[in-house]
Amino acid sequence: MAAFDHRALRGRILADAGDISFNDSTPVLVSRSLRAGEGELTADGALSVTTGIHTGRSPKDKFIVRDALTTDTVWWDNTAALSPAQFDLLLEDALAHAAGKSLFAQDLAAGADETHRMNVTVFTEHAWHALFIRNLLIRPELSGEFAADVTILHVPGFKADPQRHGTRTETVIALDMSRNIVLIGGTYYAGEIKKSVFSLFNFHAPRQGTLPMHCSANIGESGDTALFFGLSGTGKTTLSNDPERLLIGDDEHGWTAGGVFNLEGGCYAKTVKLSETAEPEIYQATRSFGTVLENLVLDPKTRLPLFDDISLTENTRAAYPLETLPVVSLGGVGGTPRTVVFLTADAFGVLPPIARLTPDQAVYHFLSGYTAKVAGTERGVTEPQATFSACFGAPFMSLHPTVYGALLAERLKASGASTWLLNTGWTGGGYGVGKRIDIASTRRLLNAALSGELDRGPTRIDPVFGLAVPAHVQGIDDKLLEPRRTWADPIAYDRAAEKLVGLFQKNFEKFGALDHLTVAGPRLAQAAE
């Protein structure tokens, strides 16, 4: 960690602020938020808020200070740069904006493993933002002076000046990796606070031999740890919330030589079309006192959230502490993973529902970070849109993806963990023709992988993607395991498969000469005749 002394910055904020409320409890923060008109209570006591024009992250407004520590290490293709002088000017102006105001501060921690923990102090203008980050980070036992490793100044009312500060717009998320200072201005979307912590962790962790991961994790009855990587809409949160397994965390983790630890102390779950039947644990969490609901419309009569109403945004969210859930690993740590699962929702309908990956294939698919989103229905367009996000979380990866890929390869080799590609997307055709693989089949395949059942059965090599696919799984139609057989028009399958292979290859070109991994990926020459 950087050697910057955060006490001086803390002292200056304390001296200049009108007043600062430190480490208010959940009831106090809810009460103060309501008095300030920041939000409203649902019938169940959750705090419902809106975030204005920013209903999601602003990745193009994220900056890292380019200095001696970062100039040769940061993945600059993925983030913009500020000079140290520009950041200092930005910080001075943000501090001037905060001077004389009532602020809320929370002393928190990131990292359930105390040997890899960062102490984080967040200063913010609003009680609900303080409650949000209190829900999501770890709430340590506080005694004596809090020695912060990270200071986050969150001032949504502050607007950057592009000409003066070198920013793109009035919105800014700026990270000084050398001093571990974060400045957020011009956006009320609370997810920026959470993800700034992850970005700092992603920068520093590899230097300590820790693999930072955008994934969920849980533990089985026998103590076996499993990891779930996946982009939005692939089922990462749904599948890791399993009543038969203890949840370690749903989003951000570190993998050390000794095991896995959660970076956070809470969950930030998407709630669009949330169903009590499909996701009962998350549904119940939205009905808990102190949960923060973002951009959800409430029924004017019942004061309950309308999960199908996306008039404000599809990116509706719920932020709640882990202990809100019924089945969690309260320590936030797990042993060395036995199973690693990469989730994808293939809307082209050509990937097998499950396949075992070799170590090289695992790194290839980790660097690819593939899923396919359903296109909009305007003018009848239903062509799937491929999405590739390196390491299943490119916007938060401060270093080049190959750094994390090399660490993953080391961890997989040392652990002997089995790695699976689990497709929760379409079968029998692409979106608009086929149908989504049913959740019961997906859970059956996942449980077979987690239990070791699939390790004992025969496999076939998929002729297009070169993946080892189980030949038979009890309770699953054999046809589902061979996507081409589920299509009414096999030639149409071949065309769709070849298109996806081409997209994989084109995306992987940006990683340069990684010949052994390129061979591990799908190749057009393998496509079915």
Structural features, described:
This protein is of the alpha/beta class. The protein has 3 domains: 182 residues, Phosphoenolpyruvate Carboxykinase, domain 1 (3-Layer(aba) Sandwich), CATH 3.40.449; 59 residues, Phosphoenolpyruvate Carboxykinase, domain 2 (Beta Complex); 188 residues, Phosphoenolpyruvate Carboxykinase, domain 3 (Alpha-Beta Complex). 27% of the residues lie in helices and 24% in strands. The protein has 14 helices and 28 strands. The strands form 6 sheets. Strands 11, 12, 13, 14, 15, 19, 20, 21 and 24 form a 9-stranded mixed β-sheet that branches. The chain has an 8-stranded mixed β-sheet with strand order 1-6-7-8-10-9-4-5, sandwiched between helices. A 5-stranded mixed β-sheet has the order 2-3-17-18-16. A hairpin with a 7-residue loop joins strand 6 and strand 7. The relative contact order is 0.11. The C terminus is likely disordered. Pathway: Carbohydrate biosynthesis; gluconeogenesis. It catalyses: oxaloacetate + ATP = phosphoenolpyruvate + ADP + CO2. Involved in the gluconeogenesis. Catalyzes the conversion of oxaloacetate (OAA) to phosphoenolpyruvate (PEP) through direct phosphoryl transfer between the nucleoside triphosphate and OAA. Its cofactor is Mn(2+). It is found in: Cytoplasm.
